[in-house]
Amino acid sequence: MRIAIIGSGLSAVSACRVLIKNNIIPDVYDAAEDLDNQTKKFKTKLSKTNPSKWKREDKIKMNGYSKFFGKEFPRKKFFGSDLIYKYIDKSKDNNPSMTHFIGGYSNVWSGSVLFPDKKDLIGWPKKSLPKIETFTKYFNDISYVSNNDNINSIFPNLKTRFDKLNYPKQINSLRKRLDKLNSKDFVSGNPRVFLETRNKKNSCKYCGYCMTGCAYDSFYNSKIDFLKFNKQKNINFFPNFILTKVTQNNNKIRLHFKNKKSYFEYDKVFLACGALSTSKIMLNSLKNLKQVKLSHCPSFVMPLFSKKSFPFNWPNTNTLSQIFIEIKNFKSKNWAHAQFSQPNEIILNKIGLLNGTNIILNMIRTFFIKRIFTVFCTLHSKYAGKYIVSKNKKEFKINYIKNLKTNKIIKSLYYSLNDKFKKVNLLSFKFFLNYANNSDHYYIGCSFPMKKKRKKITDTDVLGQIKDFNNLHIIDSSVFTSIPSTTFGLLSMINSARITETVINN
Predict the structure, then answer these.
(1) pLDDT tens track for 37-54
(2) DSSP per-residue letters across 163-220
């Protein structure tokens, strides 16, 4: 049986892991764009040097952000490069994201992973619900940072044994004070992250640049897996292949690639190009399909201020989230996911502290830095608007339909969070609340939702198959029926693994 996987992100690598474990060698096609040679050399140079010995000009180059003064925060760059966003319409801030980079957005994710509450998987067919056992079977080798705390009561840990990160004592103390406020609608605890802490070469070095690319590949990145699988000849990897459409010839799936004269036929195809790219491919492939709807998770950023100073030893720190908070209230009856942290390098750059040389100004800024925090909060997709992706001849158009309730839900969550933070002596100012761009560009999907019974042309079964299009299995977030606020990547991985395992065992 000939099997192909399209893509190289988290969903694609999950399918690979399943097939490899079952002694199947798939053909993997991907655009496989990468950093330019100069940036690759720069990353390699950093990886061979202890962070304490990085030069100032290297740090400036790595960050790659210019100062910005509006409410909007820039997209995360990758070692100073924004090539990963090459195909995004930058004229529209709320457009969903797509990339042709090998590894997809696992190159710039935070590695945060939290198993969802099944009550938040609204509309998901029973047979499609994720299981911890799937993770244990196919992903147990991935380094997992976590803790046993109140979050476990609703969101189970992926492992019984896990790794630890070093947090400042004052942050640990704050976390304990928040724990005392925990209730049925509010739980807090340590972050859950796919981050290497054991392997000497790849373990976190606390360099202070988590948001701008890890020189030591400490974060789990599907690109690393694909390169390893290819080297070990566990896959047949074909770079520089951009899929434009699929057709069916009897029970075979034909793959049509951009600028390729011939097509390729397979018994089974697993499509994992990311929700937007997959949507465009299917719009090209289905004659009667004129448009698709994409869901997303709205989000907001909430700054906090403390009268008491907290030690902040940047850059000798990890700039990931330091506390996970899960919250719901009378208006948001599904969990919202909040990540609490001291300022990261993007925030530091925003206020001019990152590479500042003026001693007096730096002293003033440092005074405030030790007293400010940020909370990034994501909501369930049911509280968001919709992206409408349509095709006219060869042109694709993306429109956005707002949900008039989104801002009301955000405000209600802001007040609920603010009430909790007041009790631990953290103050927020509504004036600085950032939800002008209230969409998360990465948390998108649901264009071909899984259904118990397929009724619409866009409906798929629990194996990601569109009606009358057998043996093509969509395995990325396109087949989500709804998107919980809790971390996105893990759900993509487990759902992809479940579909792939079921398909090859049938």
Answers:
(1) 998 999 999 999 999 999
(2) B-----HHHHHHHHHHHTT-BTTEEEE---B-B--SSTTTS----S-GGG--TT--B-
Residue 423 CB partners (closer than 8 Å, separation 6+): 181
- Whether 72 shows a pLDDT value over 60: the answer reads no
Q: What is the largest CA-CA distance in the chain?
A: 74
Q: How far apart are CA 275 and CA 218, in angstroms?
A: 26
Phi first, then psi, for residue 363 (nearest 5°) are -65, -45
pLDDT at 326 over 80: yes
Residue spans of the domains in the chain: they are 3-505
Q: DSSP 3-state assignment of 312?
A: coil
Q: Which residues pair with 249 in a beta bridge?
A: 252
pLDDT at 383: 94
Predicted confidence (pLDDT) at residue 93 exceeds the cutoff of 50: yes
Q: Which residue has the tokens 């496989």?
A: 32
pLDDT at residue 434 greater than cutoff 80: no
* 352 Ramachandran zone, left/alpha/beta (phi>0; psi -120 to 50): left
Q: CA 352, CA 312: separation in Å to the nearest integer?
A: 16
Cα separation, 425 vs 307, in Å, equals: 8
Q: Give the end-to-end CA distance of the chain in Å, rounded to a whole number.
A: 13
pLDDT for 58: 85
At position 51, the amino acid (one-letter code) is P
Q: According to the model, what pLDDT value does residue 246 have? A: 96
The C-alpha atoms of residue 205 and residue 240 are separated, in whole angstroms, by: 34
Whole-number pLDDT of residue 293: 96
Closest CA to 345 of 333, 355, 335: 355
Radius of gyration of the chain (CA): 22
> Is-contact 111 193, C-beta < 8 A?
yes
Is-contact 384 94, C-beta < 8 A?
A: no
CB within 8 Å of 133: residues ≥ 6 apart: none
Cα–chain-centroid distance for residue 398?
Answer: 21
DSSP state string for 409-452? HHHHHHHHHHHHHHTTTEE--GGG-B-SS---SSSEE-SS-B-S
CA distance readout (Å), 391 to 288, 291, 444, 467, 476: 11, 7, 19, 21, 21
Backbone conformation region of residue 22, classed left if phi is above 0, alpha if psi is from -120 to 50, else beta: alpha
**Can you identify the CATH homologous superfamily of domain 3-505?**
FAD/NAD(P)-binding domain (3.50.50.60)
Taking 90 as the threshold, does the pLDDT of residue 219 lie above it? yes
The per-residue pLDDT for 74 is 62
Evaluate whether 280 touches 389 at the Cβ level (below 8 Å): yes
pLDDT digits (tens, 9 = 90+) for 275-303: 999 999 999 999 999 999 999 999 988 98
